[in-house]
TrEMBL record:
Gene3D superfamilies: Nucleotide-binding domain of ferredoxin-NADP reductase (FNR) module (3.40.50.80), Translation factors (2.40.30.10). CDD domains: FNR_iron_sulfur_binding_3. The keyword Metal-binding applies. Its cofactor is FAD. Residues 1-98 form the FAD-binding FR-type domain. The keyword Phosphoprotein does not apply. It holds the Pfam family FAD_binding_6. PROSITE patterns: FAD_FR. The lineage of its organism: Bacteria, Bacillati, Actinomycetota, Actinomycetes, Micromonosporales. One of its GO terms (molecular function) is 2 iron, 2 sulfur cluster binding. InterPro entries: Cbr1-like_FAD-bd_dom, FAD-bd_FR_type, FNR_nucleotide-bd, MRET, OxRdtase_FAD/NAD-bd, Riboflavin_synthase-like_b-brl. This is Oxidoreductase.
Length: 227
């Protein structure tokens, strides 16, 4: 059981929740948790949410994007208040993870709120003092909908080992991420980078196909889908 200790609005529709979960066993960047809500009448709803930050004792950070008609996200982004409890199970997942002991270049490609587990990797890299070079390609509808926008700009400015580029799908003449975007802002395949792609199913499948077409080893392209 966790308790909400603080909240922070990332955008008009995305909110970071900081939870205290006693005896939390720890986690790896890229993992997620299952959050369960139980109504007074006994009705239960459960959803999975990526962890937004590396392990830090009993403290967990979840960044939740509000979804229209979403039972759990609606509560977490509008009603859930400091001091309220919530059931948390995890950590879950062992495939879509990055560990600071991995030295190879890393390419992160995010669609919308798919940036959340990738941000955990970026933060884990900084916390560990890793020198693995990171590149993030972040696709969002507009600048105002960038989750972690200010933090990413600061980190990209201050850390020469982190490069961040953006694709805005609602700006004039830009509809979706292209092969040229991935080729220009990603790593060459011959460097054998680890690639992590997270976002809506269609976005993830498209980007994964692009990476393979550019010569990346499919075994080094890890994907996480939602929606």
């Amino acid at each position: 059981m966790g308790t909400l200790t603080s909240v922070h609005d990332e955008t008009a529709t995305a909110r970071t929740l900081v939870l205290d979960v006693p005896d939390w066993p720890g986690h790896v960047a890229g993992q997620h948790v299952d959050v369960r809500l139980t109504a007074p009448d006994g009705y239960r709803a459960q959803r999975s949410y990526s962890l937004a930050a590396p392990a830090n004792g009993d403290r967990l950070e979840l960044t939740v994007q509000h979804v229209d008609d979403g039972e759990v996200s609606d509560y977490l982004t509008k009603t859930y208040a400091v001091g309220d409890p919530v059931e948390v199970r995890g950590p879950v997942g062992g495939w879509f993870v990055w560990r600071p002991t991995q030295p190879e270049p890393v390419l992160l490609v995010a669609g919308g709120s798919g940036v959340v587990p990738l941000m955990a990797m970026i933060r884990a890299r900084a916390a560990a003092g890793s020198r693995a070079p990171f590149r993030l390609i972040y696709s969002a509808r507009s600048k105002s909908e960038l989750i972690f926008g200010d933090e990413l700009r600061t980190r990209a400015r201050d850390d020469r080992g982190l490069d961040v580029s953006y694709v805005f799908t609602r700006e004039p003449e830009r509809k979706r991420i292209t092969l040229a975007d991935v080729n220009s802002h990603g790593w060459p395949a011959d460097l054998q980078p680890m690639c992590f792609v997270c976002g809506p199913t269609g976005f993830v499948e498209t980007v994964a196909d692009m990476l393979v077409a550019l010569g990346h080893d499919p075994r080094r392209v890890k994907t996480e889908r939602f929606g």
